[in-house]
């Protein structure tokens, strides 16, 4: 290998070979090392989605659960149409109504969580740094307990002999029927997903220099103007992230409507579970799951377009 002498330093300069030019940056692993991890991740993330999509275009066996590997779009047709014994097909709004009820439930949960979470996150962000850490810890404490345990705790609170009705009896008011109602299901969802709205908004506001708000006050701006022109634009990425983190699981929730609502209101999560369980109609249950995936995918695309046009980075993480 030829060398040359550097005119300024007098050091022999050795030209880099091809292997040296392709030297990896520090901390990076070669592809063969990460291939097993990628395969495992694909197996447990993409794999189930592929199975559900394949099952949604398969035929239903004459008896029992499972699928017959014959391509058909009947599960998707059954979502909007029904065929009677005479072979006549007509529009069937039943499943579409269930879909709409689920959207309404997810929308109400998201709206209430947003209204409650924004002032909480703003208040936490204006505290001292040490107190902020304590308050964020308190927000995350519910995650330390299993969801079923927390839901059963709400059942004890809302039942006929629970804390609320006991308090009403003490003041001479008649007891209320709270458990196994749509209201109980909605309360359970709001309680479950409220931290998912608080944390992203707090993350957006934590880095905000509130001296800018004070400067706006000094320049004569009103509180509503400061909130609309200064604070809200900074909190928008956190709000959008929180809306997605709350709406997506609330839309397809299953535990709260069953345990707290008593299954009195049929929602998309309960419908999918019944199709895989009682009805043994796996293709239709898979088709309903794919419909949910499509709706959530459209929401993610909309958020990505908003992020690109507004120039604000939106991260769906806590």
Automatic annotation (TrEMBL):
Residues passing through the membrane, by range: 31-58, 103-125, 134-158, 178-202, 230-251, 284-306
PANTHER family to which the protein is assigned, alphabetical: INNER MEMBRANE ABC TRANSPORTER PERMEASE PROTEIN YDCU-RELATED, INNER MEMBRANE ABC TRANSPORTER PERMEASE PROTEIN YDCU-RELATED-RELATED
Chief subcellular location: membrane
Coiled coil: none
Residue ranges constituting the ABC transmembrane type-1 domain according to the UniProt record: 99-305
Localisation per UniProt entry: Cell membrane
Gene3D superfamilies from the UniProt entry: MetI-like
Entry keywords, A to Z: Cell membrane, Membrane, Transmembrane, Transmembrane helix, Transport
GO terms under biological process: transmembrane transport
GO CC list: plasma membrane
Membrane topology: Multi-pass membrane protein
Domain of life per record: Bacteria
Protein name, UniProt field: ABC transporter permease
Family per record: Belongs to the binding-protein-dependent transport system permease family. CysTW subfamily.
